[in-house]
């Protein structure tokens, strides 16, 4: 930033003004909703639901593989 | 000269003021915490995965890998000067793409499965048609003035690149020209990730910042700080509202887009190695983070605890990826091998 010229600095000011203007929501709501969203997807996550890993595509089913 | 310096000083002061206002706005909405929100969530317990396959074929360090949207094929890039496309169900190599420049740092599979792209110290993103009888160079995207650190296809006609020249770029593959250039980072861009809805993307850079960009307008919408060194890896949660970063400062962080701030940090006193890569399980509950300590550590994203480790590589884990069907994780290493775990 030390080598910036005036136009670059002006663009940085504009960018920061734009970034300041966004709507920020309360984290008590957003984080709670994020946790709920992730929890809701866990049953469909093969790493966390062993049922889904029954048909494991990466395990050899028999000694020979038909290509 | 004096007038210029005065104007510069005024502008710098304005920037400092704006940054302070942004911090204040963040504090004003910070009325919750992840530890509070996740307090009622059950622990995932110990996550123990088995090594299912070791893919041997590269002759030098592997720098990057990317899953195909079919969750079966995968492309890997090595500084042996080759891209290899693998069938991960059988472990067979399907296609070998010889590279003009061996100094590759990134590779990507197009969602269609028809194209792959790679780039590195040549500063060029080269796109290959792998459905042709033998791999054919479709485009050479040559405009970056620094190394190509990351690339991701939006479709067969658009690709996003991140570069050591501190910019990211959206390219039109039909014309080979730049459509949008994203400038705001003050350090080498190291990684990028597309949002699930494809309207935005995030970038991580050596200025230790992560930035959220509007893909079509080119503007930086949000900037996330907190890391104290290069951000090497970055990923979106499938909800589109949170992101994860991995850094040379040995930490991973989750940032919430809606409240515009960091909500949890993944760090461990015994982990003194930089994070090179990361991937999320399909729900986002698990983070697979590759480190310089030759391991891939598994984190519970909600509890902030280490819940497992993938050990077996003999050198740095340089890349990690979970396919779209979430059925496992692939790690690639400087030891020249790729490993599949689930």
From TrEMBL, chain A:
Residues 2-67 form the G protein gamma domain. It comes from Oreochromis aureus. InterPro entries: G-protein_gamma-like_dom, GGL_sf, GNG13. PROSITE patterns: G_PROTEIN_GAMMA. This is G protein gamma domain-containing protein. GO terms for molecular function: G-protein beta-subunit binding. It comes from the Eukaryota. Pfam families: G-gamma. GO terms for cellular component: heterotrimeric G-protein complex. GO terms for biological process: phospholipase C-activating G protein-coupled receptor signaling pathway; sensory perception of taste. SUPFAM superfamilies: Transducin (heterotrimeric G protein), gamma chain.
TrEMBL record, chain B:
InterPro entries: G-protein_beta_1-5, WD40/YVTN_repeat-like_dom_sf, WD40_G-protein_beta-like, WD40_PAC1, WD40_repeat_CS, WD40_repeat_dom_sf, WD40_rpt. It comes from the Eukaryota. The keyword Cell cycle does not apply. Pfam families: WD40_Gbeta (PF25391). The keyword Repeat applies. Keywords: Coiled coil, Repeat, Transducer, WD repeat. Belongs to the WD repeat G protein beta family. This is Guanine nucleotide-binding protein G(I)/G(S)/G(T) subunit beta-3-like. The lineage of its organism: Eukaryota, Metazoa, Chordata, Craniata, Vertebrata. The gene is LOC102200425.
